[in-house]
Known about the structure:
The chain has four helices and four strands; from the N terminus they run E-H-E-E-H-H-E-H. It is of the alpha+beta class. Helix 1 packs antiparallel against helix 3 (about 75-85). InterPro entries: Dimeric_a/b-barrel, DUF1330.
Amino acid sequence: xxxxxxxxxxxxxxxxxxxxxxxxxxxxxxxxxxxxxxxxxxxxxxxxxxxxxxxxxxxxxxxxxxxxxxxxxxxxxxxxxxxxxxxxxxxxxxxxxxxxxxxxxxxxxxxxx
Length: 113
């Protein structure tokens, strides 16, 4: 099942030059794990609540590949280039397949309506 690494970067302002080095090197850490950027630094159009800062979404073939990328020596080597200079949250999450049915999920959780 496709999985995603999602980052919400909450720190506005001038970006440190080491973040540029991180950006130059990150794709080579993603390639061995099938990772590819789906959203990269986009500002959200907030419809509900508050969401300061840009969003990054990287897709992976599955959750195992996403976890192996995050734990890989090549990514761990560049990680401080980002974390030392940007405040944010990062999560790994598994997606749903094309057969996902929210009505069936509601029935399973709450009984048939």
